[in-house]
Amino acid sequence: MKIAQIAPLYEAVPPRLYGGTERIVAHLSDALVDLGHEVTLFSSADARTHATLVPVRDQAIRLDPAPLKSDLAAHLSMLHEVRRRADEFDVLHFHVDLLHFPLFQGQPERTLTTLHGRLDLKDLAEAYRCWPHFPLVSISDHQRRPLRFVNWRGTVYHGMPKRLYPFSPCAAGGYLAFLGRISPEKRPDRAIAIARATGLKLKIAAKVDAADRAYFHERIEPLLDDPLVEFIGEIGDADKPRFLGDAIALLFPIDWPEPFGLVMIEAMACGTPVVAWNCGSVPEVVEDGISGRVVDSLAAAIAAVDEVAGYDRQRIRATYERRFSATAMARGYEALYGQHSPGNHVRVRHSA
């Protein structure tokens, strides 16, 4: 099958540091190539891929040192190129939210769009009602709730190559881990409170976006003076396996409707259990009592840390391989490509 993957241009594919959507596009593209498909990736020129690369910008936007740049112009230029070459492909798989809808409204049946973000934002429902025919894919069932009326064709969970995160049989570092982004909805303050209550060291590897700098300086930075807390900053793929693999547990104390939560399966790949709040996709991703604990309070999270420290890390790794490998994800999308006739809904569930 000839498949076009259209990635956002904010991060490289995969990202050099923090970034979720572009990382998934990278893993999916490579896995589809491994399954024998002809895959063409539209992205920035700094992509690393097994697919045929069509570079539409010299580098990803976020780490581009140019002081003035237009993300809208860059994405519109890319979509113009995709439209110009559309007839070369059996399916156009978009990962840019709904930006392409006006340009491809005459041929929605040839597209598949994975929505990677939260869908409870003002204006989204009205916009999706303007283009009701585009086939959409959710990354968790919970993600769909604000837009139940749209043309959902399936849920495909994220996946990663098995080799990317090697299994770690023991928590050699003896610390708790927080990985991702410093922001109010990610609740790093909860992670710090858990560390203090358990007396365990907490390592925080996270980026601070410009929009969250005030929150970081006012709310989180004063908490970093605690000797139990170490702020590492933003890390990339090369550093994640050891960071996660050496941890007793990953803390995922979110306070928002998380669409998926890639860091949870990154930890599982290393064999590291997850202690996560019952928000958004969490109950779909974490198998409570097997790969971690799903909690509703700080007290429950504190108690869960001691419990998950005794979990079978090999079993956690096996759960990741069964449910969240890149191959499982690619097979899920294979089941959806071409399923664009009205009313043909495919619900994808991963298996070994």
TrEMBL record:
Residue stretches making up the Glycosyl transferase family domain: 175-298
Superkingdom as given in the UniProt entry: Bacteria
Organism from which the protein derives: Cognatiluteimonas sedimenti
Gene3D superfamilies tied to this protein: Glycogen Phosphorylase B
Record's protein name: Glycosyltransferase family 4 protein
Ranges for domain Glycosyltransferase subfamily 4-like N-terminal: 18-128
Cross-referenced PANTHER family: BLL5217 PROTEIN (PTHR12526:SF595), GLYCOSYLTRANSFERASE (PTHR12526)
